[in-house]
């Protein structure tokens, strides 16, 4: 399972860089949509790194249930928040899931902190 978080983190980072290049060089946006895209890219980049951290922590602590829950929150939260922002910018329609995605991202950070505080199983 730790490898899943490492792979998702790496692929999310790859996608963040690719989308950043597209946004900078090929996508024509008004100022409001440009800010939205930058917010989504920032969130995706940070949470790609968070998924890598989850994978590394889970690798070092087998059975780290809280770390795996954090990884799930980061993956689903990134998809919900970033995906909803991109959908709004590209389609002009709100999916209405960005707040839930953001909440999952925050929950992921809390779970990661709790996982880091727990003593490794003996």
UniProtKB/TrEMBL annotation:
<feature type="signal peptide">
    <location>
        <begin position="1"/>
        <end position="23"/>
    </location>
</feature>
<keyword id="KW-0732">Signal</keyword>
<dbReference type="Pfam" id="PF04241">
    <property type="entry name" value="DUF423"/>
</dbReference>
<keyword id="KW-0812">Transmembrane</keyword>
<comment type="similarity">
    <text>Belongs to the UPF0382 family.</text>
</comment>
<feature type="transmembrane region" description="Helical">
    <location>
        <begin position="39"/>
        <end position="57"/>
    </location>
</feature>
<dbReference type="GO" id="GO:0005886">
    <property type="term" value="C:plasma membrane"/>
</dbReference>
<dbReference type="InterPro" id="IPR006696">
    <property type="entry name" value="DUF423"/>
</dbReference>
<feature type="transmembrane region" description="Helical">
    <location>
        <begin position="69"/>
        <end position="89"/>
    </location>
</feature>
<keyword id="KW-1133">Transmembrane helix</keyword>
<keyword id="KW-0472">Membrane</keyword>
<protein>
    <recommendedName>
        <fullName>DUF423 domain-containing protein</fullName>
    </recommendedName>
</protein>
<feature type="transmembrane region" description="Helical">
    <location>
        <begin position="95"/>
        <end position="117"/>
    </location>
</feature>
